[in-house]
Amino acid sequence: MITNNPFSTLAETVPAIAMQGFVIAMAALTLVGVLVDILHKKNVKYFFENAKKAKKNAKVELTTGKRTAVILKTVAHDIATTSELGWGKRRLAHVLGMYGTIIFWICSAILIFSYSSVGIETPSYFNHYQ
Fold it and tell me: CA-to-CA distance for 101 and 107, rounded, in angstroms?
């Protein structure tokens, strides 16, 4: 699996433009679905009202730099590492699954958009180590 490109084989029966169009359509439909879900559940209204309430009750006004630092720390700690799961096998499984899926999507997109035409050879970096 590591040494061959399945999208190159698929390109023998399905045009590369069809695969690329499918990826673009799925990304666009996912984005539209998320936006419709946000509007349907009125999440945006809740978050804006909550932000107004928090700003009204704030005792200290943060500078832009401090606000950015808090956001980056929250993303790095809580989201990127799924810290709400605590330590252990469950958290490790979630983090490995999440990053494995993201890497798979990125690699698949690279293969589909760069190396999915018939006759294009996928670079093999593993040949250098044999």
Answer: 10
pLDDT per residue over 49-75, tens digit each? 887 887 778 777 778 888 788 888 877
Convert the pLDDT of each residue in 72-112 to its tens digit: 887 777 777 776 677 778 888 888 888 899 999 998 898 88
Residue whose structure tokens are 């690699």: 107
- Enter the DSSP assignment of 86: -
When pLDDT is averaged across residues 17-45 and rounded to a whole number, the result is 90
Cα–Cα distance measured from residue 119 to residue 124, given in angstroms and rounded to the nearest whole number: 15
Cβ-contact 62, 70 below 8 angstroms: yes
What residue spans of the chain are helical by DSSP H? 6-10, 16-41, 43-57, 64-74, 89-114
> What count of Cα atoms within 13 Å lies in the side-chain half-sphere of residue 123?
5
Question: How many whole angstroms separate alpha carbon 110 and alpha carbon 7?
Answer: 10
Backbone angles phi, psi at 59, to 5 degrees: -95, -30
